[in-house]
Amino acid sequence: MDCDSINENMSFTFTWKIENFGYSSLKNGEYLLSPVFVVDTMGKSRWRLKLYPKGNNENTKDFISFLLIRDITCSGPWNVDIRHELSFIGTDDSILVSTGPFENTFVKEKSWGYGNFVKRDVVLKVRRKDYLPGNILTARCRIGHDNEITNYEHWFARTRIGVEWRSFKWNIEQFSSFRSSLCDIHSNSTNQPMVTLKFHPSSEQASETFIRVDVYAHEYWLNFSTFRIHFIDISGKGTECLNNEILFNECNTTASFALTTSKEELMKNRNRYLPNDVLQLYCECAFSSGIRMAKIEKIVSLCSSWVQEENLSSDGLKSKKIRLDSDSKKIRLDSKNLYENLEALYKENLFCNMKLKTKTGSFPVHNYILSARSPVFKAMFTYDTKEKKQRMCKH
After folding, report:
1. Per DSSP, what are the bridge partners of residue 231?
2. Taking every annotated instance into account, which residue ranges of this chain make up the domain MATH (predicted)?
3. Is pLDDT at 116 greater than 90 in this prediction?
């Protein structure tokens, strides 16, 4: 939520982070659902975000589809008129792609959004560093209405797609005459083989022999995997020879691929790739196990008078915006609002980080308020004192 939200009457923001988005196993027409979020100012209506990593139908298979849906379990009014905006945002809260704001009437279980929200290749390849820093996609929805705004809320949710990564070197010895080479890849959690790779020569064409890689899945939870393999030359430099994805299911537990360079070509370059008749491979694998976590992480709620002085980033309360008078350049602060906001912080025990203990009891306090009012407290919290470490002051 930012100050632009106020001008657009956007009183609610939902930020959803999807970890390991690039390893989603969902097919065309299959979707991810965010945790439910509740907008109190709109009849306590319940909502979700719906995201199709490979499009919501055949016509949008090259796109990511993104929709806002009113949850069927909603207990609010049947019709809700809202203003809404859907976005993907970067690490600095910059908008990478956005639609809206638009005004629509939502009945229960109605959804609205875009089937062709953004090209898959833009997110996964062309601008991957922008859209998937740390392989995390950040989606955002802002909602508002025409009524007077008294409170602002910002909900933060996270969904994690489980992934196990492996990288290792594999040597095929006596390469000129080898028949097969087996490699087991073990699971971190069970230490049992979850995949077996079988390397073997295959004469698919009369003039050339290619090295094939047969993949056998052993674990029922495997549903999506990526494989990258490189030839390693005598200088340690790698040349990619395989980059593929596999979708596993109950009926499909095997796959087979051919490396890009033939055995004959490798033999011609034996001095570079086959020292002592050994072919060295570097393998990178990722194994997706589906959704492992989906939850609401935190909720930030502020009154309108405070939000007008604050800036909320995708990580919550970020920085104070001080407005200057254009003529005198003096700081304009509403002392009454400031007093009320500080009083609300204390009464609601918001962001308290210390306890003040007296003879009659203990009270939650803010160390920066105490420091501002007392040089004794300021010195106490500036250095590594016992009180600072224990987060308790005795008076």
Report:
1. 239, 281
2. 11-143
3. yes
25 residue type, one letter: S
Cα separation, 19 vs 70, whole angstroms: 24
Please state, for a pLDDT cut of 70, what percent of the chain lies above it.
Answer: 73
Cα–Cα distance measured from residue 362 to residue 394, given in angstroms and rounded to the nearest whole number: 9
How many angstroms from the chain centroid is the CA of residue 388?
A: 35
| H-helix or E-strand spanning residue 236 | none
Give the total residue count for the chain.
395
328: amino acid identity, one letter:
S
Q: Which two tokens stand for residue 108?
A: 């229960």
The SS3 assignment for 234 reads: coil
pLDDT reported for residue 77 = 74
Does the pTM of the predicted model rise above 0.85?
A: no
DSSP string, 337-364: HHHHHHHHHHHTTTT--EEEE-SS-EEE
Residues 321-357: tens digit of each pLDDT: 333 333 333 334 444 456 666 666 666 565 666 776 6
Contact assessment for residue 70 and residue 47, using Cβ atoms and an 8 Å cutoff: yes
User: Coil, helix or strand for 207?
Assistant: coil
Measured in whole angstroms, the distance separating CA 221 from the mean position of its chain's CA atoms is 22
State how far Cα 55 lies from the chain centre.
19
Strand duo 151-172 + 10-19: pairing: parallel
| 8 A C-beta contact, residue 160 and residue 289 | no
